[in-house]
Write a structure and sequence with these properties.
Layout: E1 4-9, H1 14-24, E2 28-36, H2 42-53, E3 57-62, H3 64-78, H4 89-108, E4 112-114, H5 123-134, E5 139-141, H6 143-146, H7 152-161, E6 175-179, E7 182-186, E8 216-223, E9 226-230, E10 233-234, H8 237-250, E11 255-261, E12 267-273, H9 275-291, H10 294-312, H11 319-331, E13 337-344, E14 347-354, H12 362-365, H13 378-386
Parallel strand pairs: 1-2, 1-4, 2-3, 4-5
Antiparallel strand pairs: 6-7, 7-12, 8-9, 8-13, 9-10, 11-12, 13-14
Helix pairs in contact: 1-7, 3-4, 4-5, 8-9, 10-11
Length: 390
């Protein structure tokens, strides 16, 4: 009798490494799926680890290009930042991975899908909502919600007793998630909101005191709301993000330390690193200020908040998200031009912008020669503006 097949969302970390053996002990043939969204060179070592533990297969899907173009850049164009800070890097990676897992489950004739998310986090929702939308009725297994290993220390003990190779130790119990768009770090001593993150917390962004003493000026070119060139040189999306991550990290740009409102109703302390997106959001916002009319910008800001909530809450594959994207794409037709930025000691600031679609008119804005603004109209305008309140 053949074993039941399950496709596991595998990261190579403590939870999913332990889950492989846990599922095997319950009679499953475990097929690991790793979605490569730019987490780095550790995918090959993680794949080898999965096979050593006992997985029948470990498939690595290259999702980087699609992730940047169809997920990260959509959030950028929308201006979506959860609670005004978080660029949604982890949240954006879950639906693309879950969607790929469903396709793999069909190919492998698997009867179940599994993930390593906890019962108090957001990722469980992001994975499972996608599973339900893309594969209604398929069995979903969430071991961390039901197993007897209630702490990370007990998971480490389980790993040691079962000879499962893992990288976490009792001294460093951080949970780390990486992709091209950002890195998230939580757990361990970070759970104390009063405690300052240690030097070992940050992975790609240098502390300000270790950054260059000379500012770095960069120029980004956008076409239709999408970044296409850096300092006059065109780059493909993935390559551009990698360049900006390295550049921003060197100058200390992109650190976020926040108390976050999780979907399940609790607050958590989260640390994020997102150098490329910090630079891109600053540039994109500056260009929109120049080319979009006031009413569109104000309404788009409202939708940006809603968009961030949809992504954060696992509702990527929904009609509302697609409808907001259609509106956003319409607004981005005029978001083309160049933005100059200065990177220095952890900050990114805009120092110049230009666009052929600019709504900024010097003849109207200037207080010097060439001013064509008819100031005599102001009195009547103010009288009408104040009339309802008089």
């Amino acid at each position: 009798m053949s074993k039941k097949k399950v496709v596991l969302a595998y990261s190579g970390g403590l939870d999913t490494s332990v889950i492989i053996r846990w599922l095997m002990d319950r009679g499953y043939e475990v097929i690991c799926y790793m979605g490569d969204v730019g987490q780095g060179s550790d995918t090959e070592s993680a794949r080898e680890r999965a096979m050593r533990i006992g997985a029948s297969k470990c498939i690595v899907g290259d999702l980087k290009r699609e992730f940047v173009k169809e997920y990260a850049f959509r959030a950028l164009k929308a201006g979506a930042l959860y609670q005004g800070k978080y660029n949604l890097a982890t949240a954006l990676s879950r639906p693309i991975i879950a969607d790929a897992m469903v396709r793999e489950a069909v190919r492998q004739k698997a009867s179940a899908l599994a993930h390593g998310c906890t019962g108090k986090g957001n990722d469980q929702v992001r994975f499972e909502v996608t599973f339900h939308v893309k594969a209604p009725g398929i069995k979903v297994i969430a071991p961390v919600r039901e197993w007897e290993l209630t702490t990370r220390e007990s998971e480490i003990d389980y790993a040691i007793s079962n000879k499962i190779p893992v990288e976490q130790t009792r001294e460093k119990l951080y949970s780390i998630d990486k992709n091209l768009w950002g890195i998230s770090v939580e757990g361990g001593d970070l759970e104390d909101p009063w405690k300052e993150p240690g030097e070992d917390t940050y992975i790609s962004v240098k502390p300000a005191r270790k950054t260059p003493d000379v500012p770095k000026n960069v120029t980004l070119k956008f076409s239709g709301g999408i970044p296409v060139a850096l300092d006059g040189k065109k780059y493909r999306p993935v390559e551009l993000i990698e360049k900006l991550n390295a550049l921003g990290g060197k100058h200390g740009v992109g650190r976020v330390d926040m108390i976050e409102d999780r979907l399940v109703g609790i607050k958590s302390r989260e640390i994020y690193e997102a150098p490329a997106s910090a630079i891109l959001y600053a540039a994109h916002t500056a260009l929109e200020e120049m080319v979009l009319d006031r009413a569109t910008r104000e309404y788009k800001a409202l939708l940006a908040q809603r968009y961030s909530e949809l992504v954060y809450n696992g509702l990527w594959f929904t009609p509302l998200r697609e409808s907001i994207d259609a509106f956003v794409d319409s607004t981005q037709k005029s978001v083309s031009g160049e933005v100059r930025l200065k990177l220095y000691k952890g900050s990114v600031s805009v120092s110049g912008r230009k666009s052929a679609r600019s709504r900024y008119k010097l003849a109207l804005a200037t207080y010097g020669e060439g001013d064509v603004f008819d100031q005599s109209l102001a009195k009547g305008f103010i009288d009408l503006w104040a009339m309802p309140y008089r």
